[in-house]
Request: fold
Amino acid sequence: MAKPTKLPADFKLLLEKGDKIYQTGISVDCVVFGFHENALKILLIKVNYINKWALPGGFIQKDENVDAAAYQILKERTGINNIFLQEFSVFGSPHRSDASVHQNRYQEYGVKIPKDNWLMQRFITVGYFALIDFTEVELMQESYLEGCNWIDINKVGPLMMDHENIVSKALETLRNQIAYTPIGKNLLPKKFTMPELQKLYETILNKKLDRRNFQRKMIGFGILNRLSETRKGGAHKAPFLYTFNDKKYQKALKEGLYGSW
Amino acid sequence: MAKPTKLPADFKLLLEKGDKIYQTGISVDCVVFGFHENALKILLIKVNYINKWALPGGFIQKDENVDAAAYQILKERTGINNIFLQEFSVFGSPHRSDASVHQNRYQEYGVKIPKDNWLMQRFITVGYFALIDFTEVELMQESYLEGCNWIDINKVGPLMMDHENIVSKALETLRNQIAYTPIGKNLLPKKFTMPELQKLYETILNKKLDRRNFQRKMIGFGILNRLSETRKGGAHKAPFLYTFNDKKYQKALKEGLYGSW
DNA sequence: TTTATATTGTGTCATAGTAACACAATGGAA
DNA sequence: TTCCATTGTGTTACTATGACACAATATAAA
Reply:
């Protein structure tokens, strides 16, 4: 792929008019979780000119809801509309953002960003995490500068700026939520088996769970429908397929799974 | 109290140089919880010119950590340095902020804020909640425009802008946290009785708890020291005083109280 | 066709945690 | 001295959890 030498129009617009279009000094970054081949993965973007991976992120338009901005970013990257998205933390260290990232990006085109440009200031970012069904995603490789890819959560290398920290916090939040919120509907395909669901839990929690106790607990939550179908293919007894009971799942989402206290 | 007619210097500075000092378009609001006379209360500020109460809030300096900004705001209001503070949510609707609040404030001095002034734009706010020991607070009544007061959480009237929403979310977060995080150290005085601790829990959870089961559970957490002293004063058996075991409390803070999953 | 293998479906038992409940002890008021 | 409100403590039934065993079955190998 040949590297263009002329500054693309959208890059020029961002640089020159960005501060008229977007909220300045604030951004959104998304940690997108997907589950595939028994591994928890996150969506990362390759930033070529610094040879590092980064979280998909972007800015907030002046009249745009912050949540909407996050949705928009993910829609552009994954093509999915109905994404489970949740804000989990704000990253507000004055030194977290690194203006040189923008400098390097524009330097590729021989453009030097003026020091007083809006992109050069300190940025506070709002972290969102998303849970999406891996099978429904078609990654958009729209930009010639950047690639988009699923990376195993255990194989995430050095990331841009403080993005490793953002990923850690997202994962921690996900782990906490799993204890009192139903998980799985957004990460698994419509039909799935109990072992698949268990693997998801084991992956997120990073520990082995007892097969029998897990099943009992899950069934006990009353949010699953067992189908009469089974998933054949393995050289062993075929496991039943399950779907989530949407109504009860929604109820559990609101009320939580443990009524303790 | 006579109303000054001349624009105070700090108001003038905020208006004219605020965008050089602070991050624009982003603010911090704090929901400060305290416990007094068996009631959960929050700290509110009376905004005279709109005759409503509001959360203590403020802006973030250009080189200031967002957390630090929240600490600073609370220090100014309560005089307390070591405050338990936690960011809990971002409020990012494009219509949540109301420029007329600022307009009205300055109108008191006959000053009309220009439409393109930084204060007139849409603001995203970061919500923090704080837990503080009521007995250590001395409220600062520094401003001639605003009063600061503790309001019973059940008697909070209409608040400025979306602040009611922010309070609800903070309370919800507190209720969720209580289930897996030790609470009380920051809200109660050093020495307290079991009935007092129970009242705190009952107030936050808004439900009655069984006295005997509550005590067993609390003792079971292993984060309390029972003193040999008792609190006399009531026409009944004097309850023992307790303190938190700092070391174990800190450990529980990190690891949570239930290891489930 | 038969046998082997991996993995699933289901059940039991001991233990820990929780909810519901009762009675003796005591500081101060009557 | 008696009474009352409230505290300290213990018991019992029930539910949830962790540890564990055996029968059933879809494919692969013999």
